[in-house]
Amino acid sequence: MSAEDMQRATWRMAHEIIERNHGLDDVVLIGLQTGGVPLAARLAEALERIEGIEVPTGCVDVAFYRDDIGLRPVLPEAVTDIPGDLTGRTVVLVDDVLFTGRTIRAALDALVDHGRARQVQLAVMIDRGHRELPIRPDFVGKNLPTRRDEAVDVNDDGVDLGEMVK
Amino acid sequence: MSSGGPANHRHGGLRNLLSIQDLGPDVAAGIEEVMTLTDSFVEVSERAIPKVPALRGRTVVSLFFEDSTRTRLSFETAAKRLSADVMNFSVSTSSVKKGESLRDTIETIEAMGVDAIVVRHASAGAPRQIARWATSAVINAGDGWHEHPTQALLDCYTIRQRLGDLAGRHIAIVGDIKHSRVARSNIAAFTALGAEVTVVAPPTLLPPSLDGWPVKVSHDLDAVLPTVDVCYLLRMQRERMSEALIPSLREYTSLYGLTEDRALELADHALIMHPGPMNRGVEISAQVAEHPNAVIIDQVRNGVAVRMAVLFLLLGSGTEWGGEADV
Fold first, then answer.
1. Averaged pLDDT of chain B
2. Residue B1 and residue A35: Cβ atoms within 8 Å?
3. Distance between CA atoms of residues A18 and A48, nearest Å
4. Whole-number Å distance between alpha carbons of A165 and B137
5. What residue of B is the nearest CA neighbor of A37?
6. Is the distance from CB of A20 to CB of A121 less than 8 angstroms?
7. Record: contact A97-B2, CB cut-off 8 A
8. Which of A95, A116, B53, B131 shows the smallest number of beta carbons within 10 Å?
9. Taking each helix axis from N to C terminus, what angle separates A36-51 and A3-20, rounded to the nearest 10 degrees?
């Protein structure tokens, strides 16, 4: 997937977010640290160009909510920054790669600590499969079938598939 | 998060926090790591519900052989905000009074299944001895005249919050250096981060030898004050007077107390710090304690977040990389 493909996917996802929510009232974008943060920023930019509305955008680090604390090294990558109380808002969680779903599970717990959102939707650039929890994305850039031991790297230049670093 | 690869993790080896040196081999990098993690816990502490499930199911026991209100409360608050269970071992009502040895006490506590022991003890080195016996993580919450590492970490954090980087800053530590574990930990931490430290005290309140201490020494507070970025006051323990180390508290105050007049000599940005509990009117005047640059309450507030960071580093993120990435 090239940078241009990613840009087109971002625009399509932005349109889908607007369509699904009949506009952008009460919509908040929350990027997951770290990969979801630049994608959330690009989605916010696209939404603003389409609708002329600046959507509140924040980020969440799920380290303290993970289910594998103590099983492997877990440290936050950055400080969580939620733009105000989420009660009654429509939260679009944004991440680069959806894999087992455990990060999203942790993110859902983290969001609850910032208020009772009216609904939470999930936008990801890559859905690579191998879910371990009943979690399904609402907006997907690309479905990318992978082996479990492959690594997916989403960066500014596009998406790369490689061997997982052990 | 991109899948694969070990998380950014440099503290696989941190099992105990007994002294500032335990954060090494690069002490400065270790302190920076604690401070970065503390930023996240400050954000947690500012929430309407200041609690995360990070250490659910872990048990932290506070084992205080010496009186303390703020340190004990601070550790217990930190553990509870991480959702850990807290056991409180109160020495005055325990079998220690019946003559139980320290080793038996530790073995008994460990048999109950604890993950971390927070120790304060009047004897220097007691936490290190406990760490030899214990399989759980041991955190030194003050041992004799030796060290009080979490105090130094929260002081570094508080200075960084107000003044930014500590490198090149001049910090005066004033008062009873000889008997102060706070001074020892702070000198190690401040100098590791590149600050210059001057200890200011009468000769009787300095250790017999300062060989190897990376500090300057002064007996003249008035000369030092205009040059400092931080004036760190230690508590004047009243029993030092009965030991005839100072002629009188009044004389101590007149020479080494931060009075209102002296505070005027400080630079506009200079911070006034104190580890507590304060003797208002002795080492710090009642008015100076309320000065806008007195960050004594910030120290207490940051103490909880710093201790959350230490507990999380020891109990939450301190295992070796081995598993498959669950992203």
1. 90
2. yes
3. 11
4. 30
5. B1
6. yes
7. yes
8. A116
9. 60
CB-based burial label for A22 (10 Å; 0-12, 13-18, 19+): exposed
Is the pLDDT reported for residue B126 higher than 60? Answer: yes
Q: Taking a C-beta distance cutoff of 8 angstroms, is the pair A103, A122 a contact?
A: no
Query: Quick check: is B240 catalytic?
Result: no
Q: What is the mean pLDDT of residues B5-32?
A: 76
Between CA B160 and CA B143 the distance in angstroms is 26
How far apart CA B140 and CA B17 sit, in angstroms, is: 6
How many Å lie between the alpha carbon of B4 and the closest alpha carbon of chain A?
A: 5
CA distance B266 to B75: 33
Pairwise CB contact (< 8 Å): A154 & B2: yes
Which of B203, B177, B202, B207 is closest to B252 using CA atoms?
Answer: B202
Tens-digit pLDDT profile for residues B36-91: 999 999 999 999 999 999 999 999 999 999 888 889 999 999 999 999 999 988 77
The residues, ordered by sequence, that sit 6+ positions from B6 with a Cβ below 8 Å of its Cβ are A72, A73, A165, B321
Which residues does residue B138 pair with via DSSP β-bridges, in sequence order? B117
Separation CA B289–CA A162 (nearest Å): 59
Domain ranges of chain B: 20-148+302-316, 149-299
d(CA B167, CA B144): 29
ipTM of the complex: 0.90
Residues of B with Cβ-Cβ distance to A152 under 8 angstroms: 2-4
Q: Which of B53, B9, B5 minimizes the C-alpha distance to B323? A: B5
Give the Cα separation of B284 and B233 in Å (integer): 8
In sequence order, which residues have a C-beta less than 8 Å from that of residue B139 and are 6 or more positions away? Answer: B16, B17, B18, B75, B116, B117, B118, B119, B127, B150, B310, B311, B314
**What is the CATH code of the structural domain delimited by B20-148+302-316?**
3.40.50.1370
CATH class name, domain B149-299: alpha beta
**Which token pair is B275?**
């580890």
